[in-house]
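Backbones bend. We report:
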Amino acid sequence: MIVMQNLKINEIFYSIQGEGNNVGMSAVFVRLAGCNLECSFCDTDFSEKHDINIDAIMKQIKKYKCKNVVITGGEPFYQDIYSLLAKLYLDKFYVCVETNGTYEINDNYSRYIDWLTISPKTNWVQKIGNELKVVYQGQDLKQYENNFFRYHYLQPCSMQNINETVEAVKKNKIWRLSLQTQKMIGVR
C-alpha cells in the first residue's frame, strides 16, 4: 500500500535533460525543495514554493504526456520520496533521480528508479548508480575511483572552468565531459 503524503516542491516543468548521459531527452522535471548541503557554487533555486500531495504532483506530471521524469532538487532524499517513486513506477514512467549521494539509497527505493545520477559534493555515501557527475573544481579525482558507476562525468563549475575541465578529462580516461547544455541553449 502506498501512503500518500505531501512533498515540498519548488517547481514542476517540462523541458529537456541538459546534463550527463541523458542529455537531449525530453522529461518532466520535479524539483523538490530543500537540501542538506550549502554549496557555495549552487545555481539552483530549491526553496519551497508549494506543499503538494502525490496525487496532485502526478496530475501535473501527466499533463505533459511525457513518460520520462527527472526528480531533482535541492536534494530529493531530503524528503521521503518513496510514495512518489512507487506511484511513478506503477504508472510506467521512466524515472531518473539526481542526488548529491549523501543519503544511502536502499533497495526499497532503488527498485523504482530507472536511472540514478550521483553528483557528489561532500560526505557522499551512495557509491552505486548509473552515472557519477562531478562538478569539477580542480579536486583530486582519485577520490571518485573505487565505486560502481557505468559513466563518469566531469562538469565545469557553473560553466566557468571549461578549459580546465576539458584538460582533466583528457588526462583521465574514465571521465567524459558534461556541459550544462540547457544554459548554453537558453532553456530551463
Observations:
- The two ends are 35 Å apart (CA to CA).
- The longest helix spans residues 162-171.
- The chain has one domain: 6-185.
- Residues 17 and 25 are 5 Å apart (CA to CA).
